[in-house]
Amino acid sequence: ARIWTLAKQPVGIPRKEDFSCIEKEVSECKNGDVIVEAEYLSVDPYMCFMAKKVPFGTPMIGTQVSRVIESKNPDLPVGSYVVAQAGWCTHARLPAKSFQIDNWFKRSEILIPLEPLPRSLGLGVIGMPGNTAYFGLLEVCKPKAGETVLVNAAAGAVGSTVVQIAKLKGCKVIAFAGSDEKVAWLKELGADHAYNYKTTSVTDCLSEAAPEKINCYFDNVGGKFTADVLPHMADYGRVAVCGSISNYTNDDHSDPYCDPVVKAKKLHIEGLNVNRWSDWTQGLEQMKEWVLEGKVKYRETVYEGFEKMPEAFIGLFSGDNIGKAVVKA
Ligand code: NDP
Protein backbone atom coordinates (compact mmCIF):
# COMPACT_ATOMS: atom_id res chain seq x y z
CA ALA A 1 0.00 0.00 0.00
CA ARG A 2 1.02 3.61 -0.55
CA ILE A 3 0.22 5.76 2.48
CA TRP A 4 0.45 9.53 2.96
CA THR A 5 1.82 10.42 6.38
CA LEU A 6 2.45 13.69 8.13
CA ALA A 7 6.07 14.70 7.56
CA LYS A 8 5.85 17.93 9.60
CA GLN A 9 3.14 19.52 11.62
CA PRO A 10 1.54 22.16 9.40
CA VAL A 11 1.98 25.78 10.45
CA GLY A 12 -0.68 28.03 8.96
CA ILE A 13 -1.93 26.72 5.61
CA PRO A 14 -0.60 23.17 5.02
CA ARG A 15 2.10 22.81 2.34
CA LYS A 16 3.12 19.85 0.16
CA GLU A 17 6.33 19.42 2.22
CA ASP A 18 4.18 18.65 5.27
CA PHE A 19 3.29 15.25 3.77
CA SER A 20 5.32 12.25 2.73
CA CYS A 21 4.28 9.09 0.88
CA ILE A 22 5.54 5.75 2.20
CA GLU A 23 5.06 2.14 1.11
CA LYS A 24 3.93 -0.55 3.54
CA GLU A 25 2.70 -4.15 3.27
CA VAL A 26 -0.98 -4.61 4.09
CA SER A 27 -1.28 -7.06 6.97
CA GLU A 28 -2.76 -10.51 6.41
CA CYS A 29 -6.52 -10.85 5.81
CA LYS A 30 -7.73 -12.95 8.78
CA ASN A 31 -11.16 -14.20 9.81
CA GLY A 32 -13.76 -11.40 9.48
CA ASP A 33 -11.38 -9.03 7.68
CA VAL A 34 -11.48 -7.58 4.21
CA ILE A 35 -8.75 -5.97 2.13
CA VAL A 36 -9.89 -2.91 0.21
CA GLU A 37 -8.48 -0.89 -2.66
CA ALA A 38 -9.26 2.83 -2.83
CA GLU A 39 -11.28 4.13 -5.76
CA TYR A 40 -12.06 7.67 -4.53
CA LEU A 41 -10.53 9.40 -1.52
CA SER A 42 -11.98 12.33 0.36
CA VAL A 43 -10.17 15.44 1.48
CA ASP A 44 -12.02 17.40 4.18
CA PRO A 45 -11.28 20.54 6.16
CA TYR A 46 -11.28 18.72 9.56
CA MET A 47 -8.08 16.92 8.52
CA CYS A 48 -6.26 20.22 9.04
CA PHE A 49 -6.87 20.61 12.75
CA MET A 50 -6.31 16.89 13.26
CA ALA A 51 -2.95 17.13 11.44
CA LYS A 52 -1.99 19.97 13.78
CA LYS A 53 -2.60 17.75 16.84
CA VAL A 54 -0.92 14.42 15.99
CA PRO A 55 2.83 13.67 15.92
CA PHE A 56 4.64 13.68 12.58
CA GLY A 57 4.91 10.26 10.96
CA THR A 58 1.20 9.62 11.66
CA PRO A 59 -0.79 8.36 8.65
CA MET A 60 -3.35 10.92 7.47
CA ILE A 61 -6.88 9.93 8.43
CA GLY A 62 -9.85 10.08 6.09
CA THR A 63 -12.62 8.33 4.24
CA GLN A 64 -12.51 6.57 0.90
CA VAL A 65 -14.88 4.70 -1.36
CA SER A 66 -13.09 1.44 -1.89
CA ARG A 67 -13.61 -1.99 -3.44
CA VAL A 68 -13.21 -5.22 -1.52
CA ILE A 69 -10.42 -7.17 -3.28
CA GLU A 70 -9.94 -9.96 -0.71
CA SER A 71 -12.51 -11.15 1.82
CA LYS A 72 -12.76 -13.36 4.87
CA ASN A 73 -16.11 -11.75 5.73
CA PRO A 74 -19.29 -13.32 4.29
CA ASP A 75 -21.17 -9.99 4.49
CA LEU A 76 -18.60 -8.25 2.29
CA PRO A 77 -17.77 -10.40 -0.73
CA VAL A 78 -15.03 -9.48 -3.19
CA GLY A 79 -16.36 -6.73 -5.49
CA SER A 80 -18.51 -5.01 -2.86
CA TYR A 81 -17.97 -1.32 -2.17
CA VAL A 82 -17.49 0.30 1.20
CA VAL A 83 -17.02 3.77 2.63
CA ALA A 84 -13.85 2.98 4.54
CA GLN A 85 -12.17 4.97 7.29
CA ALA A 86 -8.86 3.82 5.89
CA GLY A 87 -7.00 7.13 5.68
CA TRP A 88 -4.92 8.44 2.80
CA CYS A 89 -3.86 5.03 1.48
CA THR A 90 -4.30 2.90 -1.62
CA HIS A 91 -4.96 -0.42 0.17
CA ALA A 92 -6.00 -1.34 3.68
CA ARG A 93 -7.19 -4.18 5.88
CA LEU A 94 -10.53 -3.56 7.59
CA PRO A 95 -11.45 -5.81 10.53
CA ALA A 96 -15.15 -6.73 10.95
CA LYS A 97 -15.32 -4.58 14.10
CA SER A 98 -14.51 -1.40 12.12
CA PHE A 99 -18.07 -1.65 10.74
CA GLN A 100 -19.62 -1.67 14.23
CA ILE A 101 -17.97 1.37 15.81
CA ASP A 102 -20.35 4.06 17.09
CA ASN A 103 -18.27 7.02 15.93
CA TRP A 104 -18.31 8.32 12.38
CA PHE A 105 -14.63 9.28 12.43
CA LYS A 106 -13.67 5.61 12.99
CA ARG A 107 -16.52 3.64 11.44
CA SER A 108 -16.49 2.05 8.00
CA GLU A 109 -19.80 1.39 6.24
CA ILE A 110 -21.17 -0.56 3.32
CA LEU A 111 -21.74 1.92 0.46
CA ILE A 112 -25.47 2.34 -0.19
CA PRO A 113 -26.29 1.42 -3.82
CA LEU A 114 -25.85 4.61 -5.86
CA GLU A 115 -26.29 3.47 -9.47
CA PRO A 116 -26.77 5.25 -11.85
CA LEU A 117 -25.02 7.95 -9.85
CA PRO A 118 -21.24 7.97 -9.44
CA ARG A 119 -19.86 6.14 -6.39
CA SER A 120 -17.82 9.21 -5.46
CA LEU A 121 -21.07 10.81 -4.20
CA GLY A 122 -20.73 8.50 -1.19
CA LEU A 123 -18.06 10.93 -0.03
CA GLY A 124 -20.10 14.03 -0.83
CA VAL A 125 -23.76 14.86 -1.27
CA ILE A 126 -24.85 11.26 -0.42
CA GLY A 127 -22.26 10.90 2.31
CA MET A 128 -20.98 12.70 5.36
CA PRO A 129 -21.13 16.27 3.94
CA GLY A 130 -24.67 15.69 2.62
CA ASN A 131 -25.84 14.41 6.00
CA THR A 132 -24.10 17.30 7.76
CA ALA A 133 -26.12 19.73 5.64
CA TYR A 134 -29.35 17.76 5.95
CA PHE A 135 -29.38 17.15 9.70
CA GLY A 136 -27.49 20.31 10.59
CA LEU A 137 -29.92 22.57 8.79
CA LEU A 138 -33.13 20.75 9.64
CA GLU A 139 -32.39 19.70 13.23
CA VAL A 140 -30.22 22.55 14.47
CA CYS A 141 -31.44 25.59 12.49
CA LYS A 142 -35.01 24.24 12.16
CA PRO A 143 -35.89 26.65 9.33
CA LYS A 144 -39.53 27.49 8.68
CA ALA A 145 -40.93 28.44 5.28
CA GLY A 146 -40.54 32.16 4.71
CA GLU A 147 -37.57 32.51 7.05
CA THR A 148 -34.18 33.84 5.97
CA VAL A 149 -31.21 31.45 5.97
CA LEU A 150 -27.58 32.51 5.61
CA VAL A 151 -24.78 30.09 4.69
CA ASN A 152 -21.08 30.66 4.02
CA ALA A 153 -18.49 28.51 2.20
CA ALA A 154 -21.71 28.07 0.24
CA ALA A 155 -20.24 26.60 -2.95
CA GLY A 156 -18.50 23.80 -1.05
CA ALA A 157 -19.70 20.28 -0.31
CA VAL A 158 -21.78 21.09 2.78
CA GLY A 159 -22.70 24.69 1.89
CA SER A 160 -24.08 23.99 -1.60
CA THR A 161 -26.33 21.31 -0.13
CA VAL A 162 -27.54 23.61 2.65
CA VAL A 163 -28.50 26.25 0.05
CA GLN A 164 -30.67 23.78 -1.84
CA ILE A 165 -32.34 22.14 1.17
CA ALA A 166 -33.19 25.59 2.55
CA LYS A 167 -34.82 26.47 -0.80
CA LEU A 168 -36.73 23.14 -0.78
CA LYS A 169 -38.07 24.16 2.64
CA GLY A 170 -39.36 27.48 1.28
CA CYS A 171 -36.76 29.79 2.80
CA LYS A 172 -35.08 32.89 1.48
CA VAL A 173 -31.38 32.05 1.08
CA ILE A 174 -28.36 34.33 1.26
CA ALA A 175 -25.08 32.66 0.29
CA PHE A 176 -21.44 33.74 0.38
CA ALA A 177 -18.48 32.18 -1.44
CA GLY A 178 -15.02 33.20 -2.55
CA SER A 179 -15.20 33.66 -6.35
CA ASP A 180 -17.52 35.09 -9.00
CA GLU A 181 -17.77 31.65 -10.64
CA LYS A 182 -18.99 30.20 -7.33
CA VAL A 183 -21.47 33.06 -6.91
CA ALA A 184 -22.90 32.39 -10.39
CA TRP A 185 -23.37 28.71 -9.52
CA LEU A 186 -25.09 29.59 -6.23
CA LYS A 187 -27.60 31.71 -8.15
CA GLU A 188 -28.22 28.73 -10.47
CA LEU A 189 -28.89 26.63 -7.37
CA GLY A 190 -31.60 29.07 -6.33
CA ALA A 191 -29.89 31.34 -3.79
CA ASP A 192 -31.91 34.58 -3.59
CA HIS A 193 -28.74 36.57 -2.94
CA ALA A 194 -25.18 35.38 -3.50
CA TYR A 195 -22.02 37.36 -2.86
CA ASN A 196 -18.27 37.03 -3.25
CA TYR A 197 -17.02 37.76 0.28
CA LYS A 198 -13.56 38.55 -1.10
CA THR A 199 -14.75 41.55 -3.11
CA THR A 200 -17.65 42.84 -0.98
CA SER A 201 -18.35 43.84 2.60
CA VAL A 202 -20.36 41.22 4.48
CA THR A 203 -22.01 43.97 6.53
CA ASP A 204 -23.10 45.97 3.47
CA CYS A 205 -24.36 42.85 1.69
CA LEU A 206 -26.46 41.80 4.66
CA SER A 207 -27.94 45.29 5.10
CA GLU A 208 -29.02 45.07 1.47
CA ALA A 209 -30.15 41.43 1.35
CA ALA A 210 -31.66 40.97 4.81
CA PRO A 211 -33.27 44.16 6.10
CA GLU A 212 -35.73 41.77 7.81
CA LYS A 213 -32.73 40.08 9.57
CA ILE A 214 -31.53 36.48 9.50
CA ASN A 215 -33.37 33.65 11.27
CA CYS A 216 -30.93 30.81 10.57
CA TYR A 217 -27.16 31.08 10.18
CA PHE A 218 -25.37 27.91 9.02
CA ASP A 219 -21.78 28.77 9.83
CA ASN A 220 -18.92 26.97 8.07
CA VAL A 221 -16.36 29.78 8.41
CA GLY A 222 -16.37 31.38 11.89
CA GLY A 223 -13.92 34.15 12.82
CA LYS A 224 -14.46 37.68 11.52
CA PHE A 225 -17.12 36.53 9.07
CA THR A 226 -19.28 35.43 12.00
CA ALA A 227 -18.55 38.55 14.01
CA ASP A 228 -19.90 40.53 11.01
CA VAL A 229 -23.00 38.35 10.71
CA LEU A 230 -24.25 38.26 14.32
CA PRO A 231 -25.53 41.86 14.47
CA HIS A 232 -27.74 40.99 11.48
CA MET A 233 -29.45 38.09 13.27
CA ALA A 234 -33.14 38.30 14.13
CA ASP A 235 -34.19 37.91 17.76
CA TYR A 236 -34.33 34.23 18.70
CA GLY A 237 -32.29 33.37 15.59
CA ARG A 238 -30.62 29.96 15.38
CA VAL A 239 -26.94 29.49 14.63
CA ALA A 240 -25.57 26.08 13.62
CA VAL A 241 -21.83 26.06 14.25
CA CYS A 242 -20.82 23.55 11.61
CA GLY A 243 -17.21 24.59 11.11
CA SER A 244 -14.80 27.49 11.37
CA ILE A 245 -12.49 26.96 8.42
CA SER A 246 -11.10 30.50 8.69
CA ASN A 247 -9.61 29.44 12.04
CA TYR A 248 -8.12 26.11 10.94
CA THR A 249 -5.11 27.69 9.25
CA ASN A 250 -4.36 30.74 11.38
CA ASP A 251 -3.55 31.27 15.01
CA ASP A 252 -6.22 33.89 15.54
CA HIS A 253 -8.74 32.05 17.69
CA SER A 254 -10.75 35.16 18.51
CA ASP A 255 -14.17 34.22 19.82
CA PRO A 256 -16.80 35.56 17.47
CA TYR A 257 -19.69 34.55 19.72
CA CYS A 258 -19.34 37.72 21.70
CA ASP A 259 -21.64 37.82 24.68
CA PRO A 260 -23.44 41.13 24.16
CA VAL A 261 -24.85 40.35 20.71
CA VAL A 262 -25.73 36.77 21.61
CA LYS A 263 -27.54 37.92 24.76
CA ALA A 264 -29.24 40.94 23.22
CA LYS A 265 -30.66 38.84 20.44
CA LYS A 266 -31.36 35.76 22.60
CA LEU A 267 -29.68 33.57 19.98
CA HIS A 268 -29.71 29.82 20.06
CA ILE A 269 -26.18 28.69 19.11
CA GLU A 270 -25.49 25.00 18.77
CA GLY A 271 -22.43 23.09 17.70
CA LEU A 272 -23.05 20.24 15.32
CA ASN A 273 -21.11 17.06 14.82
CA VAL A 274 -21.68 14.27 12.33
CA ASN A 275 -21.59 11.75 15.19
CA ARG A 276 -24.80 12.90 16.75
CA TRP A 277 -27.38 11.47 14.36
CA SER A 278 -28.52 7.88 14.64
CA ASP A 279 -30.71 7.85 11.51
CA TRP A 280 -27.66 8.19 9.24
CA THR A 281 -28.95 5.89 6.49
CA GLN A 282 -32.28 7.71 6.37
CA GLY A 283 -30.37 10.94 5.70
CA LEU A 284 -28.38 9.32 2.90
CA GLU A 285 -31.55 7.83 1.36
CA GLN A 286 -33.25 11.25 1.43
CA MET A 287 -30.25 12.93 -0.19
CA LYS A 288 -30.12 10.21 -2.86
CA GLU A 289 -33.82 10.66 -3.62
CA TRP A 290 -33.42 14.44 -4.01
CA VAL A 291 -30.36 14.00 -6.26
CA LEU A 292 -32.17 11.45 -8.46
CA GLU A 293 -35.21 13.75 -8.69
CA GLY A 294 -32.96 16.65 -9.70
CA LYS A 295 -34.03 18.64 -6.62
CA VAL A 296 -30.49 18.72 -5.24
CA LYS A 297 -27.66 19.31 -7.69
CA TYR A 298 -24.01 18.66 -6.99
CA ARG A 299 -20.60 19.46 -8.36
CA GLU A 300 -17.31 17.72 -7.68
CA THR A 301 -13.73 18.80 -8.11
CA VAL A 302 -11.95 15.56 -9.00
CA TYR A 303 -8.16 15.32 -8.78
CA GLU A 304 -6.73 12.43 -10.81
CA GLY A 305 -4.18 10.21 -9.08
CA PHE A 306 -3.36 9.21 -5.49
CA GLU A 307 -0.24 11.40 -5.61
CA LYS A 308 -2.57 14.45 -5.71
CA MET A 309 -3.85 13.95 -2.12
CA PRO A 310 -1.83 16.83 -0.60
CA GLU A 311 -2.65 19.18 -3.49
CA ALA A 312 -6.37 18.42 -3.25
CA PHE A 313 -6.33 18.90 0.52
CA ILE A 314 -4.37 22.16 0.45
CA GLY A 315 -6.76 23.47 -2.22
CA LEU A 316 -9.59 23.46 0.35
CA PHE A 317 -7.93 26.37 2.13
CA SER A 318 -7.52 28.51 -0.97
CA GLY A 319 -11.01 27.69 -2.25
CA ASP A 320 -9.80 25.73 -5.31
CA ASN A 321 -12.75 23.35 -5.09
CA ILE A 322 -16.30 23.88 -6.30
CA GLY A 323 -18.56 21.35 -4.64
CA LYS A 324 -16.95 18.30 -3.07
CA ALA A 325 -13.20 17.79 -3.50
CA VAL A 326 -12.23 14.15 -4.11
CA VAL A 327 -9.20 12.30 -5.44
CA LYS A 328 -9.58 9.44 -7.94
CA ALA A 329 -6.93 6.90 -7.03
P1 NDP B 1 -15.78 22.79 1.34
O1 NDP B 1 -16.09 21.92 0.19
O2 NDP B 1 -16.72 23.90 1.69
O3 NDP B 1 -14.31 23.36 1.14
C1 NDP B 1 -13.81 24.36 1.93
C2 NDP B 1 -14.20 25.76 1.38
O4 NDP B 1 -14.07 26.68 2.45
C3 NDP B 1 -13.26 26.28 0.31
O5 NDP B 1 -13.63 25.86 -0.98
C4 NDP B 1 -13.34 27.79 0.48
O6 NDP B 1 -14.36 28.32 -0.37
C5 NDP B 1 -13.80 27.97 1.93
N1 NDP B 1 -12.73 28.59 2.73
C6 NDP B 1 -11.46 28.15 2.88
N2 NDP B 1 -10.77 28.97 3.68
C7 NDP B 1 -11.63 29.99 4.02
C8 NDP B 1 -11.51 31.16 4.83
N3 NDP B 1 -10.39 31.47 5.45
N4 NDP B 1 -12.60 31.97 4.94
C9 NDP B 1 -13.77 31.67 4.32
N5 NDP B 1 -13.93 30.57 3.54
C10 NDP B 1 -12.88 29.75 3.41
O7 NDP B 1 -15.63 21.90 2.66
P2 NDP B 1 -16.79 21.10 3.41
O8 NDP B 1 -18.09 21.39 2.78
O9 NDP B 1 -16.35 19.71 3.56
O10 NDP B 1 -16.76 21.74 4.88
C11 NDP B 1 -17.33 23.03 5.11
C12 NDP B 1 -17.28 23.31 6.61
O11 NDP B 1 -18.08 22.37 7.30
C13 NDP B 1 -15.89 23.23 7.23
O12 NDP B 1 -15.77 24.24 8.20
C14 NDP B 1 -15.89 21.86 7.87
O13 NDP B 1 -14.96 21.76 8.92
C15 NDP B 1 -17.32 21.78 8.35
N6 NDP B 1 -17.82 20.43 8.57
C16 NDP B 1 -18.32 20.13 9.80
C17 NDP B 1 -18.87 18.92 10.07
C18 NDP B 1 -19.46 18.66 11.40
O14 NDP B 1 -19.77 17.52 11.75
N7 NDP B 1 -19.64 19.69 12.21
C19 NDP B 1 -18.89 17.86 9.06
C20 NDP B 1 -18.39 18.28 7.76
C21 NDP B 1 -17.86 19.52 7.55
P3 NDP B 1 -14.41 29.89 -0.77
O15 NDP B 1 -13.90 29.97 -2.17
O16 NDP B 1 -15.85 30.19 -0.65
O17 NDP B 1 -13.55 30.64 0.19
TrEMBL record:
Record's subcellular location: Cytoplasm
A Pfam family it matches: ADH_N_2
The reaction(s) annotated as catalysed by this protein in its Swiss-Prot or TrEMBL entry are: octanal + NADP(+) = (2E)-octenal + NADPH + H(+); decanal + NADP(+) = (2E)-decenal + NADPH + H(+); 6-trans-leukotriene B4 + NADP(+) = 12-oxo-(5S)-hydroxy-(6E,8E,10E,14Z)-eicosatetraenoate + NADPH + H(+); leukotriene B4 + NADP(+) = 12-oxo-leukotriene B4 + NADPH + H(+)
Organism of derivation: Penaeus vannamei
EC number, UniProt record: 1.3.1.48, 1.3.1.74
So which domain of life are we looking at? Answer: Eukaryota
Tell me yes or no: is Acetylation among this UniProt entry's keywords. yes
Its primary localisation, in coarse terms, equals cytoplasm
Family to which this protein belongs: Belongs to the NADP-dependent oxidoreductase L4BD family.
Major enzyme class: oxidoreductase
Question: Record's SMART domains?
Answer: PKS_ER
Q: Under which name does UniProt file this protein?
A: Prostaglandin reductase 1
Q: Which residues form the Enoyl reductase (ER) domain?
A: 12-327
Q: Which GO terms describe its biological process?
A: prostaglandin metabolic process
Q: How does it assemble?
A: Monomer or homodimer.
User: Which keywords, in A-to-Z order, does the entry hold?
Assistant: Acetylation, Cytoplasm, Fatty acid metabolism, Hydroxylation, Lipid metabolism, NADP, Oxidoreductase, Phosphoprotein, Prostaglandin metabolism
> What GO cellular-component annotations does this UniProt entry give?
cytoplasm
Could you tell me one molecular function GO term of this UniProt entry? Answer: 2-alkenal reductase [NAD(P)H] activity
